[in-house]
Amino acid sequence: MRHLLLTAAILGIAGAVPGRCDGSLYEQLGGSAGIHRIVDATLRRYFTDPRLHDDFDNVNQAWLQPRFETFICHVTDGPCRYRGRSMAASHRGLHIDQARFNAVVEDLQDGMDEAGLPFRLQNRLLARLAPMERDIVTR
Q1: How far apart are the C-alpha atoms of 15 and 99, rounded to whole Å?
Q2: Three-state DSSP state, 137
């Protein structure tokens, strides 16, 4: 089921789910507090997922969390402006394969589940992030 959601997001049809869409995606996610819950739940998974141990072993979670929150705020049309490196620059040289990328997406989906985000909104966020796959998966 999770791969179907990812596939829908990649194809760009996930945002076409019927339902009410009032306000920006940022507002629908619950603003800053909602994004914090999503990112917190997701990062806990990234840092404990054995599939991602090598990727996050030397990353400081306290450093990453506010940057990840700002990034999500930015891509969901919130008031934040992400001024960090591009996804291509951030992941250059890491040799991320499709399996590791999929693990990251699965952990994000589980984090969104824990944060209580409805599938409709999960799909809308995934649709915003999906085009970045080509900048992240390099092998």
Answers
A1: 25
A2: strand
Neighbours of 136 (CB within 10 A): 18
CA atoms of 11 and 51, how far apart (whole Å): 26
CA distance 106 to 110: 6
Residue 4's identity, in one-letter code, is L
Q: What are phi and psi of 9, to 5 degrees?
A: -65, -40
State residue 22's pLDDT score. 66
Helical (H) or strand (E) element with 33 = helix 31-48
Whole-number average pLDDT of the chain: 87
In tens, the pLDDT along 18-41 reads: 344 569 999 999 999 999 999 999
Residue 16: CB atoms within 10 Å: 11
Does residue 117 carry a pLDDT above 80?
yes
CA distance 76 to 28: 9
- pTM for this structure? 0.82
DSSP-based three-state secondary structure for 109: helix
**Sign of dihedral through CA atoms 48, 52, 55, 61?**
negative
Distance of CA 1 to the CA centre of its chain: 18
